[in-house]
């Protein structure tokens, strides 16, 4: 158990500055923030520039620093930092889901080899303690499904679009101002960020480790006013969902917008809030909800990881040890797709076509298709097709 936590912090953006202020406010005994490393020497800062260094070695080669907080927006640079930190036997707390999803196995193995903790609660659903909950409360229950609204930016955009018609890019600008969006917001709106989070969730919930390449991610970029009108008329909301379902045929997992009946709890999750709906064999249904993005709420998850180091906390990965579920993308799902141009609907071939229709100038069709086929058929689409999962 470390007697003293001496922190080296990488990044002073939305999350990095958040944890700085939280630590300053809490003044926790035996926790000392020693060094902050950022990238750009000439950037205006909210605190004195003498607080900053620009050399990673100032943290990585400082033997007094025993904990690295990795809170930067560059997944490749983060990988290099985290790898070196673990190899130097420093504990790591990170919020970087893109880095984790791409290097999961290697980094977890490194942390075990060097007997240090690698914690990342903030990487999935901001302030919601989902990973700790899966690890502790559901470690020996059998999870049947996990549905997550895990991207605050997309949920913020959809909430605003359902409130009133407004330009998509103006809402993204607001999400950036609030510090919710990734530096590259296409990660948010095209479902990549949700996919990285789904990969992390799946490992803790089902013991299945997917690669980013094998998971379908569809986003909300092409949602149109008529799609929203259609949803409202039918008493649905539209949410971007990371959906994982385990049955005797294996684990089906994908990220896509979904039409959700207004009677379901997930429809009430608005703005940057996130939620995770779990269905487990013994515990039945649970819903965790809370702020999924933003400076201070995300910092709270970083803080909880940090203080847990006093108890030598590290993840047990019990599901990975217990289960050997196979990933299965052959499952058929019911899908809605729409475009102003009927030609855009043609290239996607359903297994079974159920319905074709129009909503003002919008053409749509609904049918059944396997997750695998949908992934293959939407891979190189250049059209403005909006695709969403439709309830059975
Ligand atoms: N924003 C949010 O709500 C959430 C973000 N996350 C994750 O947290 C991480 C940080 O996000 P966020 O705070 O929003 O990002 P920001 O863009 O607000 O800040 C990024 C920070 O990283 C620094 N940085 C970038 N590259 C380097 C480098 N090579 N060495 C040192 N510092 C570097 C930047 O330095 P400089 O200031 O000099 O430009 C900046 O301070 C990301 O992985 C993100 O996905 C997770 C949950 C929620
Ligand atoms: N960009 C992300 C930040 C938190 O992970 C989001 O919008 O959810």
Automatic annotation (TrEMBL):
EC number assigned by the record: 1.1.1.3
Keyword Cell membrane attached: no
Catalysed reactions, semicolon-separated: L-homoserine + NADP(+) = L-aspartate 4-semialdehyde + NADPH + H(+)
Alphabetical keyword list: Amino-acid biosynthesis, Methionine biosynthesis, NADP, Oxidoreductase, Threonine biosynthesis
Pfam families the record matches: Homoserine_dh, NAD_binding_3
InterPro entries, per the entry: Asp/hSer_DH_NAD-bd, HDH_cat, HDH_CS, NAD(P)-bd_dom_sf
GO molecular function: homoserine dehydrogenase activity; NADP binding
Family: Belongs to the homoserine dehydrogenase family.
Keyword Membrane tagged: no
Species this protein is from: Psychroflexus gondwanensis ACAM 44
Functional pathway: Amino-acid biosynthesis; L-methionine biosynthesis via de novo pathway; L-homoserine from L-aspartate: step 3/3; Amino-acid biosynthesis; L-threonine biosynthesis; L-threonine from L-aspartate: step 3/5
Lineage start: Bacteria, Pseudomonadati, Bacteroidota, Flavobacteriia, Flavobacteriales
Stretches assigned to the Homoserine dehydrogenase catalytic domain: 129-307
GO biological process, one term: threonine biosynthetic process
UniProt cross-references to Gene3D superfamilies, sorted A to Z: Dihydrodipicolinate Reductase, domain 2 (3.30.360.10), NAD(P)-binding Rossmann-like Domain (3.40.50.720)
Protein name: Homoserine dehydrogenase
Domain Aspartate/homoserine dehydrogenase NAD-binding: 11-121
